[in-house]
Amino acid sequence: MGGAAWRGRTGRSAGGAAADLLMAFRAAPERVLTGAVRGVAARRPEVFERLGDARRADFVIAPTDFPVAFRLRPDGRTGEVKVVRHDDDAPCAARITGPLVLLLSLLDGSADADAAFFSRRVRIEGDTDATVALHNTLEAAELSLADVLGVRPPLREPVTRGASAALAVLRRHAGVA
Amino acid sequence: MAIELVCPAGSPAMLRAAVEAGADSVYCGLRDDTNARNFPGLNFSPAELAESVAWAHARGAKVLTAVNTFARAGAADRWRGSVDAAGEAGVDAVIVADLGVLAYARRAWPGLRLHLSVQAAAGSPEAIAFYAREFGVKRVVLPRVLSVGEIAALMREIEVETEAFVFGGLCVMAEGRCALSSYATGRSPNLSGVCSPPEAVTYTEEEGGAMTSRLAGLALDRYAPGEPAGYPTLCKGRFEVEGALSYLFEDPVSLNAIGLLTELRRAGVTAVKVEGRQRGKAYVARVAATFRKAIDLLERGGDPSELSAELTDLAEGGRETAGAYRKTWR
């Protein structure tokens, strides 16, 4: 665990024009998302203790209905998030694939990961141990989308409530409730 | 008295979700191999356990701590340490399987309630009487291989409380004795606290959308595109024998006995238990709320079976069963 040796199968799409556009302007979302990871690590270092060796693992989070993917290294205050193409074949510990709304719902704990796996809506490839550690850490962390976006009080609570309600609607709309 | 609803927690957040959704009791484990859900990132530190007990007690809920793996020679201090941590945290009971751990808990914490884990596989009046007599066990978690009729017959011959699984993953082996995970990976729920340890599990996506699950390199199943999947355990592997492909031991399905609550109460069961400490907040909130509704309905004279279909989307393989409670294979 913690290594970054898995490459997975090839033949994924590069993502087309939308991906080109997002890749060209990836610096800003990378800064926000990386800042959010490091911000949580600064405020709640105990969250990252659950990860064990998996904190140094690279995870590729690949929404099937979004032009680009994300490469996450949840290494506490030196953690980072990079925007990558779906056909990025740099080694990683694990690749987690599924609809964007479901991946976001797993992040904030409003969807059940095992049910998402049983239904085949979410797929896991690579290091299962690291992926299980990431899932259990997120479950315990009680993160909200406001945390992911780096929103601080006093806006954090209203943004959290609004995002949760929006996710619930989107899940029902997408049939992944 | 109403049936007690016992729900799982793999983290303090999940414990709070369970209690807020209506659980009477929550069971959990410490972050090591002294409990049967020793997965990476899961479980409680001693400090989290103490905080969670205080939180639960303030809301009228109980916390039961599983120290339910079998202590290994030369390493028993860890099991004694978990019992001590549970006792110091003020838990309402410890759930134990190992004779040595039971003896230690009885001696070191004489006021601490002892529940016998399902891992002890105690399903006869004689076995249960032994644990009650020798260790003062107050409740037995029943093996998941008994029918409702067998439970009713058992209840007439024992004097301790019983707890029966009603939802979640099924284990149809003699629990605490299964060696399938050990055979494939060298680690088992009995000694290491993990069945099919995740470091030995791989999933391979194939062109066209099929997926193969493997345990320590052994292929367990190949799922067609879109076909619901199950847990990666050898007992739920799909194997070809004499030309026929089938689930030899157990189908990938979840237990759902919500429709049997009336019969279980009539049989004299004290508490019903939900499996799944490895799941999460969303799972436990929905399952606890549904079973809370079902038990309350039962108390008002209603029929809980009307709620049977509410949790199917959470089931392993997308399918549910009444398991051994409606044993039809004998």
From TrEMBL, chain A:
SUPFAM superfamilies: SCP-like. InterPro entries: SCP2_sterol-bd_dom, SCP2_sterol-bd_dom_sf. It comes from the Bacteria. Residues 59-138 form the SCP2 domain. This is Predicted lipid carrier protein YhbT, contains SCP2 domain.
Automatic annotation (TrEMBL), chain B:
Pathway: Cofactor biosynthesis; ubiquinone biosynthesis. Pfam families: Peptidase_U32. [4Fe-4S] cluster binds at C171, C178, C195, C235. Keywords: 4Fe-4S, Hydrolase, Iron, Iron-sulfur, Metal-binding, Protease, Ubiquinone biosynthesis. InterPro entries: Peptidase_U32, RNA/ubiquinone_mod_enzymes, UbiU. GO terms for biological process: proteolysis; ubiquinone biosynthetic process. Its cofactor is [4Fe-4S] cluster. The keyword Kinase does not apply. GO terms for molecular function: 4 iron, 4 sulfur cluster binding; metal ion binding; peptidase activity. Required for O(2)-independent ubiquinone (coenzyme Q) biosynthesis. Together with UbiV, is essential for the C6-hydroxylation reaction in the oxygen-independent ubiquinone biosynthesis pathway. Belongs to the peptidase U32 family. UbiU subfamily. Forms a heterodimer with UbiV. This is Ubiquinone biosynthesis protein UbiU.
